[in-house]
Amino acid sequence: MAEKGNSSTEQLVGIDRLREEHQKVVRDCESRIQHWNKVSGDYEALADRLKTLPDQLSYDIMVPFGPLAFMPGKLVHTNEVTVLLGDNWFAKCSAKQAQKIVDHRMKYVQRELDDLHRTAKNFEARVGFVKELEHVSNSEGGFVDIKEEVGNNEAVVTKGKHRIAHKPNSKPKLDAVLDLDEEKGESGGESGDEGSRKGILTEEELWARLDELERQEEQQDEQDRLSDTADTNGEDTSSSSEEEKEGDAAHPVNGCPKPSWTSVPHSKLPPSRDMIEEEDEEEGSCLPTIYFSHTVEPKKVRINTGKNTTLKYSERKEQKEHSKKKKKNGHNNGHSHHELHKITTPADIYRLFVDVKNGEPIPRKSILKSRSRENSVCSDTSESSAADFEERRIIGRSFSHDEATHSDTSDGITEEDSPTAVPLHPASRFEAFSGTVVEKDPMPTVVPHLTIAPPALPTILERKQEEVASDVAPPAQEPPKRVSKFKAARLQQK
Amino acid sequence: MAEAIQKKLHSEMEKYTQMQKDVSKSMSARQKLEAQLTENNIVKEELGLLESTNTVYKLIGPVLVKQDLDEAKATVTKRLEYINGEIQRYETLLKEMEKKSEQHREVLSSLQQEYQRAQGLTVGKV
């Protein structure tokens, strides 16, 4: 209570001070108003004098002569006055003009007076308010401030424990992930379809989504690898029934990949996927097949051998390629591509390379060699220049292990604008791949013992490919090449 | 200890008062400029009221020097510009000074507290 009293007295002191200051201002204003009033009166007298001065030609006046004496004199030139304008400026003018000037000054004085009056009024009101406040705080007028002290009793009684907001599990169980993933694989095409068709996904959303999927994919890969190593012979426990269906009976040409592929032109992403084995899909249901689906959404590349062994590839590959396209020839494509294969055993490598000969699936004799000419969609190299071809051949020889990457990047180069370019050049269907895939005669005798080539090559390969890309670049040749492999394949079928 | 602080406090105080003097000086200068501005404005307006037949004089020292009306107008305009510039200059100067004096005040208060602490509870008379 003592404190309260103290504060109230402090308040009172403050109020007193405030009132004093306000009163000071008011007083000041009043004095100034007096001053200006005097000035105004002077000017009025002057105006009067000026009005009457020119009435006569001369006046008899008593001229002040020092402080004590006057002497008689005469005032002539009655219509001639010198006006001090201010700042030591003088002007000689007639009485009439002088009157004008006087009027002008009167106006100014009036303005000043008005201002001062307003200020004074304002502060008087304030003084009144302060007085009232003083009354109130002195509780003279029967007013009391109701004050309530807020104590420090923070210890609010709560029953039981405080509740904790749990974060949602960032890492769900592996099983759940697997299931989720399968489902997504099932619906991936459609959802991707929708996404791309509507075009509602902004780039950021897209990337966020891709990141998320990448994470999931990593887990999935791990799972796959585990199960793969568990039974190398192919009974892949991790592959879902849905996938088996796809691999055995369902022929996904009309299924997942195709619709999603058709949807791609609507999306912002260029159809970067290259369908190495698109053609193969049509051959028969039990063929070893590589499916690529073309969606913005979780993309899976399944490499399905006849033994139901399924490898899944994350769409990170695609992502990389996407970024590569953005960056124009990013350097990380081939590299990341290989990292993602997760090849743990030599057997896994063979699953990646499958040829189709006369409608029969033939495991590649040597993955170091390019596919046979007759089967390949991308076999037509005629368009490329000889030097180009030569170089490619070299690459093919030394790095044919990375064939998939080859065609990948080649598509990246040639297919960039394919969705728009395709209708323009329907006839030049093979040209899209002319620059990139090296075709060699199959060498059946080569024993595939060389397949354990380390996947460390891509860096060199990448460099080479860039050269290739620059070779292919000549603008005269470029336009006809912009045809997607798919388009080409389909046109061929027709 | 207390001695040193007191010495420091004293010097700071002197500096601060000096600063305040400066501030008030420039403040009054600025007020003067303001008055001159209004005066010159009036002169300009009244020169506008005059006609070319009127003769204009400038009081220089004890003599009135005859001036051309247009010349006088130009001179007054120039003077107005100058005054405006000066006002601006003083404005920035004042702002700077205020900032400095604020800092000074803070230093002073902290010093005072230190001094008081050093002297126990006896309040230094500063």
TrEMBL record, chain A:
<keyword id="KW-0496">Mitochondrion</keyword>
<keyword id="KW-0804">Transcription</keyword>
<feature type="region of interest" description="Disordered">
    <location>
        <begin position="465"/>
        <end position="494"/>
    </location>
</feature>
<dbReference type="Pfam" id="PF02996">
    <property type="entry name" value="Prefoldin"/>
</dbReference>
<feature type="region of interest" description="Disordered">
    <location>
        <begin position="182"/>
        <end position="201"/>
    </location>
</feature>
<keyword id="KW-0539">Nucleus</keyword>
<keyword id="KW-0650">Protein phosphatase inhibitor</keyword>
<keyword id="KW-0963">Cytoplasm</keyword>
<dbReference type="GO" id="GO:0003682">
    <property type="term" value="F:chromatin binding"/>
</dbReference>
<feature type="compositionally biased region" description="Basic residues">
    <location>
        <begin position="482"/>
        <end position="494"/>
    </location>
</feature>
<keyword id="KW-0805">Transcription regulation</keyword>
<dbReference type="GO" id="GO:0005634">
    <property type="term" value="C:nucleus"/>
</dbReference>
<protein>
    <recommendedName>
        <fullName>Protein phosphatase 1 regulatory subunit 19</fullName>
    </recommendedName>
</protein>
<comment type="subunit">
    <text>Homodimer. Component of the PAQosome complex which is responsible for the biogenesis of several protein complexes and which consists of R2TP complex members RUVBL1, RUVBL2, RPAP3 and PIH1D1, URI complex members PFDN2, PFDN6, PDRG1, UXT and URI1 as well as ASDURF, POLR2E and DNAAF10/WDR92. Interacts with POLR2E/RPB5, RUVBL2 and RUVBL1. Interacts with PFDN2, PFDN4 and STAP1; the interactions are phosphorylation-dependent and occur in a growth-dependent manner in the mitochondrion. Interacts with UXT.</text>
</comment>
<dbReference type="GO" id="GO:0003714">
    <property type="term" value="F:transcription corepressor activity"/>
</dbReference>
<keyword id="KW-0966">Cell projection</keyword>
<dbReference type="InterPro" id="IPR009053">
    <property type="entry name" value="Prefoldin"/>
</dbReference>
<feature type="region of interest" description="Disordered">
    <location>
        <begin position="214"/>
        <end position="343"/>
    </location>
</feature>
<dbReference type="GO" id="GO:0000122">
    <property type="term" value="P:negative regulation of transcription by RNA polymerase II"/>
</dbReference>
<dbReference type="GO" id="GO:0005739">
    <property type="term" value="C:mitochondrion"/>
</dbReference>
<keyword id="KW-0597">Phosphoprotein</keyword>
<dbReference type="InterPro" id="IPR004127">
    <property type="entry name" value="Prefoldin_subunit_alpha"/>
</dbReference>
From TrEMBL, chain B:
<feature type="region of interest" description="Disordered">
    <location>
        <begin position="1"/>
        <end position="23"/>
    </location>
</feature>
<comment type="function">
    <text>Binds specifically to cytosolic chaperonin (c-CPN) and transfers target proteins to it. Binds to nascent polypeptide chain and promotes folding in an environment in which there are many competing pathways for nonnative proteins.</text>
</comment>
<dbReference type="GO" id="GO:0051131">
    <property type="term" value="P:chaperone-mediated protein complex assembly"/>
</dbReference>
<dbReference type="GO" id="GO:0016272">
    <property type="term" value="C:prefoldin complex"/>
</dbReference>
<dbReference type="GO" id="GO:0006457">
    <property type="term" value="P:protein folding"/>
</dbReference>
<comment type="similarity">
    <text>Belongs to the prefoldin subunit beta family.</text>
</comment>
<dbReference type="InterPro" id="IPR002777">
    <property type="entry name" value="PFD_beta-like"/>
</dbReference>
<dbReference type="GO" id="GO:0051082">
    <property type="term" value="F:unfolded protein binding"/>
</dbReference>
<feature type="compositionally biased region" description="Basic and acidic residues">
    <location>
        <begin position="1"/>
        <end position="15"/>
    </location>
</feature>
<protein>
    <recommendedName>
        <fullName>Prefoldin subunit 6</fullName>
    </recommendedName>
</protein>
<dbReference type="InterPro" id="IPR009053">
    <property type="entry name" value="Prefoldin"/>
</dbReference>
<keyword id="KW-0175">Coiled coil</keyword>
<comment type="subunit">
    <text>Heterohexamer of two PFD-alpha type and four PFD-beta type subunits. Component of the PAQosome complex which is responsible for the biogenesis of several protein complexes and which consists of R2TP complex members RUVBL1, RUVBL2, RPAP3 and PIH1D1, URI complex members PFDN2, PFDN6, PDRG1, UXT and URI1 as well as ASDURF, POLR2E and DNAAF10/WDR92.</text>
</comment>
<feature type="coiled-coil region">
    <location>
        <begin position="80"/>
        <end position="121"/>
    </location>
</feature>
<dbReference type="Pfam" id="PF01920">
    <property type="entry name" value="Prefoldin_2"/>
</dbReference>
<dbReference type="GO" id="GO:0051087">
    <property type="term" value="F:protein-folding chaperone binding"/>
</dbReference>
<dbReference type="GO" id="GO:0005737">
    <property type="term" value="C:cytoplasm"/>
</dbReference>
<keyword id="KW-0143">Chaperone</keyword>
